[in-house]
C-alpha cells in the first residue's frame, strides 16, 4: 500500500505571497488616503472656524456700533462726545474691514475665503443694509463733530441706522448659520468617505483571511495529516527495504519542504511532551531573538525568563500533552518585551514512534495592546463623565440650599421683624389719645407699605408675576428696571421687533433665568456702567442679546468643564439652553465688553 503526501509547492507559496503583498498594499493605500483626507479636512476646518469667528465678530461690531451711536445721540458733554466719536470711528473701521474680509479674504494674514454661491448671494442681499448703516454712521459722526444743530438731519441718520441695523443683524445671523451648516456638511461628507474606506479595509482583511490564511492553515493541516499517514505507511512497508527506502526519502523531502514553508509563514516549533525543544522555526527564533539556542532547552525558558510565566507554560504542556490545547498566554522576551501568543498545541507521533507536540502560534501582541487601550479609554471617559455629573449635582443642590436659606433669611430678618413690629405697634395704639394714635397709625401705614414691598421683592426673586401674566418681554422689562434701581447702573431693554408672543411656560422661565444670569454676571464681574438687553425676532428665531461695556475677558481662559472651584453659572446657562433647543453665543475680548446672544426657535 503506497501513498504520496501533499505539500505546499513553490507556485502556491509565491501566489499566496503575492496576494499577501497586494492585500497589505491595499490596506496601506486606504490608510494613507484616510490620513490625507483627514488632514485636508482639518485644514479646511481651521479656515472655517476662523470664518465663523470673523462672522460672529461682525455681528458683535454691528451691535456695538448701534449701541455707541445710540449713546452718542444722548451725550451732551463735549469731552464725552469726542471720546465716543473716536470709539464709533474705530468700531466702524473694524466693521467695514471685517465685512470686506468675509467676502474677499485677507492675503496679509493668510486668510483665504471661498464662499459658496448661497453665502455669496446672502452677502449681495445684506450689502445694501451695510452701506446704508455705514453711510448713515459717517454722516452722523460728521454732524456731531461739526456741532451741527440740525436735529432733523441727526434724527434722520439715526432712523436710517436703526431701520437697517436689525435687518442687517437678522441676515448676518443667517450667514453665520449657513457657514455652520456648510461646515457640518463637510464633516458628514468626510464621515461617509471614511466609512467607505473603513469598509474597504475590512473587506480586504476578510478577503486576506479567506483567500490566504484560511486556505494556508487548511493546507498545512492537511499536509500534517498526510505526513502522519505517510509515516504509518512507511513503517508498514519496512519489510520491503527498497520500497521503504524510497518512501522514507520522499517523506524526508516533503517534511523538509513543509518545515521550510512553516518556518517562513508561522511561529512553528516542535517539543517533547516534557517541554524540551526538538525544532524551532526561524520566525519564532527571530521574534524571541534566539538565533542560537540549546536544542535540549525547555520551551518555557525560551519564551520567558520570568519564573511565574515559565511555571504556567510548563503546567499547560503537562496537563494537555495528550489531548492538545488551544488558547492564549503572555510571554516575555529576553529584552523584557511582553509578547502575547495565540497557541495551538497538537500531539504528534514521529516515525520512530516518539511522541512530540507541535506548536503553531500567532503573535497577537498588537491586538492585545489595542484592546487594552480601548478598555482604558472607555474607563477614563466613564469616570470623567461621572465626576462631572457629581460636580453639577452637588452645585445644583448647594445652590438650591443657598436660595432656600436666602429666602428664609429675607423672610425672618425682613418681613418677620416688620410683622413683629407691626404687632407691637398695633398693641400700643391708644384710642383714647387721638393725637398719639394718629402718629402711630401713620407709622403703621409706613410699616405696612414696607412689608408689602418686602413680600413683592421676595416673590419677584422667586418667579416674577409679570412672567406668568404677561410673558417674557414684560418680565424682562421689570427685571431691568428693578436691577437698574438697585445697582445704579444704566440697564436698558429694547424690544426692537415689538415681540409680544407668548411661549410655553417652561421656555419662558428658562429664557428669563438665562437672561437674569447674564445680567447678573455683567453686574458682578464686568464692572460695566451700561447694559443693553435687546429682544428681536424673525419668523423662526427669537433672539435675546445682553451687551455690556465692561472689562470683558479672554475666552480661551473660560473653564471648559465645571469643577469644585466654580464655572457653574455658564454650565447652568448651557443646560437651560439645551433644554429649550436653543443656541448660546458668548463674544468677549479684554477691555471690549461682553456680548451674550441667546437664540431659540419659534416653530
Short description:
The protein has 14 helices and ten strands. By secondary structure, the chain is α+β, with helices and mostly antiparallel strands. The N terminus is likely disordered.
Structure commentary:
It is an enzyme of class 2 (transferase). Residues 325-376 form the PAC domain. This protein has helices at 10-73, 78-104, 117-145, 151-236, 241-265, 282-287, 299-303, 307-320, 365-427, 434-462, 465-469, 472-487, 505-524, 568-579, and strands at 267-271, 277-280, 325-332, 338-349, 355-363, 490-495, 530-537, 541-548, 583-588, 594-601. α1 (10-73) runs antiparallel to α2 (78-104), α1 runs antiparallel to α4 and α13 (505-524) runs antiparallel to α14. The protein folds into 3 domains: 17-220, Four Helix Bundle (Hemerythrin (Met), subunit A) (Up-down Bundle); 263-366, Beta-Lactamase; 465-601, 2-Layer Sandwich (Heat Shock Protein 90), CATH 3.30.565. The protein is built from 14 helices and 10 strands. Strands 2-1-5-4-3 form a 5-stranded antiparallel sheet, with helices on both faces. The longest helix is centred in the N-terminal third of the chain and has 86 residues, at 151-236. With 603 residues, the protein is α+β, with helices and mostly antiparallel strands. It is 67% helix and 12% strand. β4 (338-349) and β5 (355-363) form a beta hairpin. The model is unreliable at 1-8 and 562-566 (pLDDT under 50).
